[in-house]
Every structure is written in C-alpha cells, then in structure tokens.
Amino acid sequence: MNVVATARSLPGYRPVRTRLLASLAGFGTLAAAVCLLAPLVGSTSISLARAFDPSIPFADNIDAQIFFIARLPRVTAAALVGGTLAAAGVVFQALLRNPLADPFTLGISAGASAGAMFAIVLGASVAMVPPVPVASLLGAALGALVVYRLATLRRAPLSTSVLLLAGVTLNSFFGASVMALQFVADFTQVARAARWLMGDLDVGSFGPIGSALLLVAPAFVLFAFLPSSLNVLSLGTDAAAARGVDVHRAQRTAFLGSALATAGAVSLAGPVGFVGIIVPHLVRLLVGGDHRVLLPASALAGAAFLVICDLVARTAFSVQLPVGIVTALIGGPFFLWLLVRKG
Amino acid sequence: MATRSKRLTGVVAVALTLALAWSFAWTVGAQAPPPRRPARIISLVPALTEMLFDMGAGPQVVGVSRYDTFPPPVRALPKVGGLLDPDYEAILRLRPDLVITYGSQAELERRLNAGGVTFYSYRHAGIAGILQTIGELGIATGHEPEARASSNRLQAQLDAVRLKVRGLNRPKTLLVFGRERGTLRQIYASAGAGFEHDILEIAGGASVFAAARRESVQPSIEMLLASAPEVIVELHGTGAPDAASIKSDHEVWGRLASVPAVRNGRIHILYGEHLAIPGPRLGATAEDVARAIHPEAFR
User: Fold this and answer.
1) For residue A268, which of A134, A161, A124 has the smallest C-alpha distance?
2) Which of A229-233, B142-146, B187-191 has the lowest mean pLDDT?
C-alpha cells in the first residue's frame, strides 16, 4: 500500500490502467497493421482482385492459393510464434529473476530440438501425422517435466538456482543428443536438422497453427493470472511471500504457462531465437517493468516483430533466408540503437 | 643453476631430435613415388567407390566411408569415418597408397600430403564432371581402358534415354530431392546446375527453377505455387517405405490444388538408393525420371 502511495506521488506517474490502455492501443495497432499488410507482399506479385474473386473456383485460382495457402498461414504463424515467445520470455525473466533468461534457457527448446532430430534421422512417418512437430513436442514435454521435477523435489517453492542449473544441464544433455544423432545421420539429414534449427514459418496450412494453439491458448489463459504475482515474484520469493502471494502456486502457474507456450511455438516453427529475450527488453525500455503492462505489450510487440522479420526474410533477398537468422540480424542492431538512445 | 641449464639443454636436445626425426619421416614419405597401380585404395566418397568397382578396381579397395553401401562387397570393408570426420588413424592403419577424398576434406588432405600418401580430391559437379572423374580415376588406379568402357557405358545409357524422349514436349518439372516427411516444409529442389539438373534435362523435363544457376533451391510454398510445375518428381534415396507412407507422400502435395501437376495427377515419387548417388548408376536414375515424365515413350 505504501509502495503504491509513494509511486502515485511521483511526478509523471500515470495509473496502470492508463498505461495499459495506451500500450495496448499502440502495440495492438502496430501488430494489427503489420498482420494486415504483410500478406499483401511476397516473393511473387499477385492480383488481389483475382485472389478475392468468388467466381473463380479456388482450385483454379493461383492468386487465391498464394494468398490463402502460402501467405496468410505464414503471417499467422509468425504472429502467434512471435507473441508467444515474447510473452514466455517475460515470464521466464521474472520467474528466474534473470534478465538473460529466455524461453530456451530451461532446456525445453533443446528437448524439442533433440525430438526433431530424432524424427529427422529415423524418418518414420505414421500415415499423415508429420513426425517432426510431434517428436519436437514430445522432446519439449520431456525437458519441461525433468526440469520441473528436479526443481520441486524438496516441496518448497521452486528453487530458481536449481531451475537454472537443471536447465543449463539439460541444454547440454539434449545438445549432445542432437550431436550424437547428427553423427550417425547422413548428410541430407544433417542438413535438414541444421535447417530446422534456424526456424521456419512456411507452414503451408492452418492445420499446424491449430495444433500449436492447443498448447498456446491455455498458456495465455495462465498468463492472464500472472502479471501481479510476477511483479512481486521479481523482487524475490521471500519478499513475495511477505506480501501475501502464494509463491509456490504463482511459480507453478508461471512455469507451466511458459513451458506450454515454448513447446507450442517451437513445435510449430523450430527454435526461432532472439524474440524471447530481446522483445521483452525492448518493450521494457518503452513501457517500464510493470508486468501488468509489460506482458500484454510484449506479446503484441513480439507478434509484430516476427511478422516484420519474416516479411524481410521472404522478400528482401534473392534467396529466402530462414527467419531465425533475420531476427538477430535486424533485431540486434535495432535493440542496440534503442539501448544507447534510451540509456 | 647449473642443473637447471643442463635440464634445459636436455629438453632442447630431445625436441630437436624429435623434430629432425619427424622432418626425415615427412621427407621420405613425400618423396616416395606413387605406385603405378595402387594396391590399397581407400574411398571416402560413395559415388567414387561405385565408379571404382564398376571399372574393376574393386579388389584394390581396402577401406570405405561410413556412408558406403554399394556394391554389396563394400559392406564387409573397414569403415574409416565420414565426410565430416574422416578417421586419419584408421586410414593410416590400412596403409593406403591412394585415398579418394572429397574436396571439402582440406585438413585430411593436408595430413595425407604431409604423410606422403597420394590422394585424389573430388567435388560433385554435373554429368560431364562425373564422366571426366571416371576417366581420371581409371588413370589413377591403372584401369584406364576399363574406365573408358565404364564411362562409355554410362554415356550410352544416358544417350538412350535422351533418344527415347527426343521430340517430345518438355513439361515444366519440379524435381524434389528432400522434404520433411508428412509436410511441404524444408523442400530441396533441383535448380539450374549440378547432376540432378542434368538428369532432368536428359529425361525430357524443364526445371522450373532452371534460372537459379546453382545446384539446389529451398522454395517456399509461395514459390512452389507461383512456379506452377506441370510434373512433380520426388526422389527418395531409400528403399520404398510401407504403403501408408507412400500414400502420405502423394497426398501431401494435394494441398496445392492450383498446381497443374497436382490437378492432373502428375506427382511421381521414386524410391531407390541409387537415386541420390552421382555414380555409374546415373543411367538408371535418368531412365526412372524419364519414365515418370514421359511414360508414353516407354510403352
């Protein structure tokens, strides 16, 4: 109560509701505009009039197919993955109280990579079920379970140091598994695995997006309960407990939500790097550290960021670069510029 | 102080002796003239292993790479690593007098050079390069006439395929040699150079990505739709899988309904270990691809 009263007395203080609405309006408009405009541009030129002409059967309409099969699912996947990874990044940074944490810190993504590699090397396909996303999801689930089990062994609140160390260890373990599998794989499998690790949003239909949503939607429901707890958790578990927060429960919700989010995003697009660590910091520079504003604003900014990166990836060069390369190539300098300017 | 300087002198003397011994060994190795007909060949490139066996140099081969499976006798030969991790010790242990390397194995080639072991460095190229390689291998292994016969045999097979499809229209063809199973992601397609492109030309197809002057492209779904191939040929360098997987490999293309190849049922998926290896079996590969693109020519 005292903290709030002190904050309110500061010059330039704006109530959280105002800041939330302002940032939702700003980042929401940006994300919506980017998502609406991005499908209009691509590596080929199409006629929108023809694409939306209902008199031409869909099967005969190349423009409509390019718009609805190639571009729209791709932009949707970019928005979903970008928003999800950015939100998960915010949650991981608060949960682990570490500014360098990101969705890939805890071994969940490394588990997904090992799963994907396993599927690529074994190459078996069960009817129409694509093996790589399923195997990467299983790997992510395995990673999350192991880390969570280790961190909760003592039935006390989650130990952030155990979480971090278990995550780092699992990253190495799964990394070694990936290398071992690559060692026995043939060249084409190694090339495909390397390509998977660079991230890919060219999903080709809404089916994979729907599957990923089964994980991502519950994650966002859990995230909705988190912001106030994250504000207090980022001060430390003792401080949080002293303020009446059920620390164990908040930590479990945060971990479960971000694990689901990461698993969903990685199984859809591979481990697209940089979004989960940079977007939260970028948004924090603009809207401050209050998670009630930071979490939704980061989700929207992450969506816009990845759609823009993917737009650059598929149009700016003569070859289509993997999106994971572009995120760091254009996101990195932009973040450093903002850091210097704001700092 | 005196003890220390004595010890130092001792260390320097040992080091000098070792260096001298090493440089002597190196000099001897490097100066040894390559034998006229190598008796102990190691091949680290599966396509070239096949060439060696095809020209009758098989009995001289004493070691192969981990990826070699054809012809069947190579399965019993010692394995000496792969493209990225050639096992130098295992190679030396086999006392080779000729090692076939891939051009990217620069470190191995440096060591072989230092050890005075003759090597033949190769890089994949188009069909002209493959025919030339067969000739050069014949000279290097003392099988020049047999190599010429092997090269002529391949050339004749390719010419026969070319003749079969001569005068027929050349449909716009997408030649795929890599794809993530069950999806249309991570597609690797033949472009405007390399042996896959040459095979497609010989088999009477016109590559939809011929304008890209490199061996392969990774087209997005948008590029696939826009390129509108009339025929899609997909090569799997493995034996045929179960019926459900074959069905799934076909069905996955059904999503691109506006593509002429999909609408006209011109999706051809070929399975076979020879399809991925640019060796003497390329004649069979060319015929398989031609039969898919122009079935009417083979009735």
Assistant:
1) A134
2) A229-233
A3-35: pLDDT as tens digits: 444 555 555 567 788 889 999 999 999 999 999
Tokens standing for residue B170? 């050349």
Instruction: Specify the DSSP element, H or E, that contains B51.
Output: helix B46-54
Neighbours of A26 (CB within 10 A): 15
User: How far is residue B185's CA from residue A200's CA, in Å, rounded to a whole number?
Assistant: 8
Residue numbers in A near B217 (CB within 8 A): 319
Tell me which H or E stretch contains B176: strand B172-178
- Which residues are bridge partners to A104 per DSSP? none
Ramachandran quadrant class, B115 (left: phi over 0; alpha: psi -120 to 50; beta: rest): alpha
Question: Which of these, A235, A245, A337, A221, lies nearest to A282 by C-alpha position?
Answer: A337
What pTM value is reported for the model?
A: 0.77
DSSP three-state, residue B122: strand
- B103, with CB counted inside 10 A (0-12, 13-18, 19+), is exposed
pLDDT tens digits, B175-224: 999 888 888 988 999 999 999 999 999 999 999 999 988 888 989 999 99
- For residue A188, the chain B residues in CB contact (below 8 A) are 177-178, 188, 237, 276
Distances (CA, A) of B244 to A124, A126, A130, B182, B272: 11, 8, 13, 11, 17
- A96-148 residue pLDDT tens: 888 888 888 888 889 999 998 888 887 655 545 678 888 888 999 899 888 88
Say if the Cβ atoms of A125 and B184 lie within 8 Å.
Answer: no
Beta strands at B188-190 and B172-178: parallel, antiparallel or unpaired: antiparallel
* Residues contacting residue A149 through CB under 8 Å, at least 6 positions apart: none
* Residue A234: closest CA among A281, A164, A291: A291
Phi, psi angle pair for B232, to nearest 5°: -120, 125
The number of C-beta contacts closer than 8 angstroms across A and B is: 108
Cβ of B222 and A66 within 8 Å? Answer: yes
- Alpha helices (H) in A96-130, listed in sequence order: 108-122
CB B173 within 8 A of CB B231: yes
- Give the C-alpha separation, A234 to B206, whole Å: 61
